Automatic annotation (TrEMBL):
This is Tungsten ABC transporter substrate-binding protein. Keywords: Signal. Residues 1-33 form the signal peptide. Residues 37-259 form the PBP domain. InterPro entries: ABC-Tungstate_binding (IPR052738), PBP_domain (IPR024370). The lineage of its organism: Bacteria, Pseudomonadati, Pseudomonadota, Betaproteobacteria, Burkholderiales. The keyword Nucleotide-binding does not apply. The keyword Signal applies. Gene3D superfamilies: Periplasmic binding protein-like II. It comes from the Bacteria.
Length: 282
């Protein structure tokens, strides 16, 4: 009598196979968990600008460590790390980063690089925003009722945008201008919406330079010192989450602020234009 004609024997054999597989998975789990890779929660701008496609192969070549990126808004990236779902964070909201460390979720914050934010809009500039003053520009967007796309995703860019609106006299949490729309999306999708609807949008310069679907959009406001955009890196604190790969994560943090890592950042250009400027230790 074979297994197919003996249901009891078939069930026993199936149960044994499942038990063996579960045991092997349990044994392999710790080994896989300690594999030579780290999970990095980072911003959409570092990915969508193309920086990571340039930077991470250089890091792997130097160290042998893979980096698996979870690209989110800065707020979401920090939340991911707070839950212990990342080994390291690489984001751009200094106040939020410092709170993350002060609350015990991250080890030392290291400045890595900077670029700047720019106000993008239709080249015809119906709200007459063109210039260097971001608050004056947003006042004109608000009073004109022009369409404005906000990421609305708790990202570093979104946090900066809210600060600029507040400086312009508008508390977005209380009153939104007539043309203000939140997409709850990353930088690339926000730019796509702006391109398709002729709206204004605040963007980091790196993602803008790598953005292909520009339609008639152009940079309208740049050069305001308030548009400075600093990035930092932090290893997740293993005291909060013991499974964090502290040594491998610290290896990335140390490399990205080293001369080799800083040179790799400076070497990333599009059309001859540098997207990020290393400033570790400054």
């Amino acid at each position: 009598m074979d297994l197919m004609t003996n249901p009891a024997r078939l069930l026993r054999r199936t149960a044994l196979a499942l038990l063996v597989n579960a045991t092997l998975a349990a044994l392999a789990g710790p080994a896989l968990a300690q594999g030579n890779f780290i999970v990095m929660a980072s911003t959409t701008s570092t990915e969508q600008s193309g920086l990571f496609a340039h930077l991470l192969p250089a890091f792997k070549a130097a160290t042998g460590t893979d980096v698996r990126v979870v690209a989110l808004g800065t707020g979401q990236a920090l939340d991911t790390a707070r839950r212990g779902d990342a080994d390291i964070v690489f984001v751009h909201d200094q106040a939020a980063e410092e709170k993350f460390v002060a609350d015990g979720f991250g080890l030392k914050r290291l400045p890595v690089m900077y670029n700047d934010f720019v106000l993008i809009g239709p080249a015809a500039d119906p709200a007459k925003t063109r210039g260097k003053d971001i608050t004056a520009a947003l006042q004109k967007v608000g009073t004109s009722g022009a369409a404005f796309v906000s990421r609305g995703d708790k990202s570093g860019t979104h946090a900066a945008e809210l600060r600029y609106w507040k400086a312009a006299g508008t508390d977005i949490a209380a009153t939104k201008p007539a043309g203000y729309k939140e997409c709850g999306c990353g930088m690339g999708p926000a730019l796509n919406i702006a391109a398709s609807t002729g709206a204004y949008v605040l963007a980091d310069r790196g993602t803008w330079l790598n953005f292909k679907n520009r339609a008639d959009l152009a940079i309208l406001v740049e050069g305001d010192t308030r548009l400075f955009n600093q990035y930092g890196v932090m290893v997740v604190n293993p005291a909060k989450h013991p499974h964090v790969k502290q040594a491998l994560a610290q290896g990335f943090a140390d490399w990205v602020v080293s001369p080799a890592g800083q040179a790799s950042i400076a070497g990333y250009k599009i059309g001859g234009e540098q997207l990020f400027f290393p400033n570790a230790g400054k």
